[in-house]
Amino acid sequence: MAMVRLVACFVLYTSLGHIPSSLGVILRTTDKIVWANEFEPIELTCLIESISTNNPRIEWKKIKNGVPSYVYFQNKIAGDLENRAQLREPANILIFNTTRSDTAEYRCEVAAIDDQRDFDEILISLAVRVKPVVPRCSVPEAVTVGTSTELRCLENEGFPAPQYRWFHNNEELPQDPKNSPKFVNSSYTINPDTGGLKFQRVRKEDAGEYYCQAKNDAGHAQCSPQMMEVYDIDILGIFLKSFAAVAVFFCLAACICHSLKRGCFHKKSHSENNYNWPSQTDASYRDADEGHFRHKSSFVI
To answer: Which stretches are transmembrane (predicted)?
Structure first.
């Protein structure tokens, strides 16, 4: 009777898709989404909760952009993790120094031929954080009071994308100047996603050294301080315009002198002009009133 009940329970479990753990291989992991810092070690866990087979086949695959490749195959590390990783009991993968290229999905597969459920797999997502490099900062050298200007900061190596902060004379600028008594009269806005620092109306107090910092969970980096001068009048603009006017004047003068040397403006004298004067030897002339020729003097035959 007991045997009948045991068989009935087994049939019921199998019909519902449930197999006792002692009859099948079952895997689990401590983290299905794993973050790691670049150049630091990380371990991907593939824990075998239940198995009957003594020597199961263990494989790891890396899936990037939908394309799988072997990481652990035929009892050895393969692919781009060769010499950078090892298999740890029972089926974990330890990466010694992760790089940004290791960001991908990893699948642990265990096949146990002696188990009723002879195969199981688990998928783990690995994302490698990359520290930002020194950002490229753009700070205008001189601006005029009351005008608008923008300071820029850009970094494109860090992962995840960094957030940006600006510093004025080694003091961090608050995201909202209205929340700080010191900057309440400032008209700037900061975009932490793009790194832009924009002044709607520059004040004399805005002059000084500026630098930008890019930061994410892996670390931060900043550019060198750059000076921004604020003038009451546009001295730089006036200088550049004056310099341009002088340069144009000298260019015109040089062109005129060169043309004079080549004789482009030389006038011919009156004696050199070749005019055709009417002949005075003609003995007759035409009378406009009479409409015919007449003799100027009498002829003697």
So the answer is: 235-260
